[in-house]
Structures are given as structure tokens and as C-alpha cells.
């Protein structure tokens, strides 16, 4: 059995044990970012509030797979394209907020978010010519501030 088959079988077995009916597909087009796509009518339970259950499922799945393989392997679990849609939403939020910062010439704070979501925002704005980003605060209330790089942006 290869790594992809072990990942898929482990997740199918785990979902069956916790009582979820679902279809599981793997996207292995990028070997460094294997994505496990779970399609289910019970997505809300698997995703949980702000993706909490999904992250727990991903962590548990990685522990089980890594134990079976004897070495760590990275993969991402997505349920009904939640992660994919969330990433797009965060990129749009970053872009719109950066535009607002440039127009208003003042810093704006985003709502608290988990580390992986903050990373998406930081990366989305990393090359922006007029704004910078910084994470501030303590978990679980850590948030991003998007601020002008200079006082004379687009004058």
C-alpha cells in the first residue's frame, strides 16, 4: 500500500468509526500538498465552529497516518471545500482591507483568527507596496493589524 492509499484508508476508517457517511478523494497533483477532500451531508459537524472540528480531525488523522507510516507526511483535509473557500475569503478580506488602509491612511485591525488563517493574510499582503501586516495580542485573541508602510501613500 502506498502513502496515498494509507492516508485515504485511515481517514475512511476514522470517519466510519465516528459515524459519518462520506466520500473521500485525494488530490495528489502536488506531492508536497496532498489534499484529502471529504464530501458529506454532515459537513457542519465535521467542520465545527470556525473550523475547530476540522482541525482536530486533521490533527488526529495525521497522528494515525504518521504512526502507520513510521514517518511524518503532510496532508490537508478539506470538507465540502470549506478550507478552499475560506482561503479565498481570507485573501479577499486582506485585499479589501489593504485598499481601505491605503484610502484612509490609517491602520485597521482584523478579527482574531487562528495562526494558519493569519498566515494566509500575511502571505496575501507580503508583496503589497503600501501596506504591511503584523500579528498582535495573545492567543486565542491574536489578530492582524494592517497598516500603511509610509505616511505619503498614494497622495
What is the CATH superfamily classification of the largest domain? K homology (KH) domain
Q: Spans with pLDDT under 50 lasting ≥5 residues?
A: none
SS-derived structural category: alpha+beta
Helix content: 40-55%
Strand order of the largest sheet: 1-2-3
Q: H/E order of the elements?
A: HEEHHEHEHEE
Number of helices: 5
Please give the alpha-carbon distance between the first and last residues.
61 Å
Mean model confidence by pLDDT: 91
CATH topology of the largest domain: GMP Synthetase, Chain A, domain 3
For this entry, give a set of tags.
single chain, 155 residues, alpha+beta, GMP Synthetase, Chain A, domain 3, Ribosomal Protein S8, Chain: A, domain 1, three-stranded mixed beta sheet, 46% helix, elongated
Blueprint (SSEs and pairs):
Layout: H1 3-17, E1 23-27, E2 34-39, H2 43-47, H3 52-69, E3 75-79, H4 82-104, E4 108-109, H5 115-125, E5 131-136, E6 143-148
Parallel strand pairs: 2-3
Antiparallel strand pairs: 1-2, 4-6, 5-6
Amino acid at each position: 500500500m502506498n502513502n496515498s492509499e494509507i492516508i485515504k484508508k485511515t481517514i475512511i476508517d476514522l470517519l466510519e468509526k465516528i459515524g459519518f457517511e462520506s466520500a473521500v478523494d485525494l488530490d495528489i497533483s502536488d506531492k508536497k500538498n496532498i489534499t484529502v477532500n471529504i464530501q458529506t451531508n454532515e459537513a457542519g459537524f465535521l467542520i465545527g465552529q470556525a473550523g475547530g472540528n476540522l482541525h482536530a480531525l486533521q490533527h488526529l488523522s495525521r497522528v494515525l497516518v504518521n504512526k502507520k507510516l513510521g514517518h511524518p507526511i503532510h496532508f490537508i483535509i478539506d470538507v465540502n471545500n470549506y478550507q478552499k473557500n475560506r482561503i479565498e475569503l481570507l485573501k479577499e478580506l486582506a485585499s479589501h482591507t489593504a485598499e481601505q488602509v491605503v484610502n484612509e491612511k490609517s491602520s485597521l485591525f482584523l478579527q482574531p483568527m487562528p495562526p494558519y488563517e493569519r498566515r494566509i493574510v500575511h502571505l496575501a499582503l507580503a508583496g503589497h507596496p503600501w501596506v504591511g501586516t503584523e500579528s498582535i495580542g495573545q492567543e486565542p485573541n491574536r489578530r492582524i493589524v494592517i497598516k500603511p508602510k509610509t505616511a505619503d501613500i498614494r497622495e
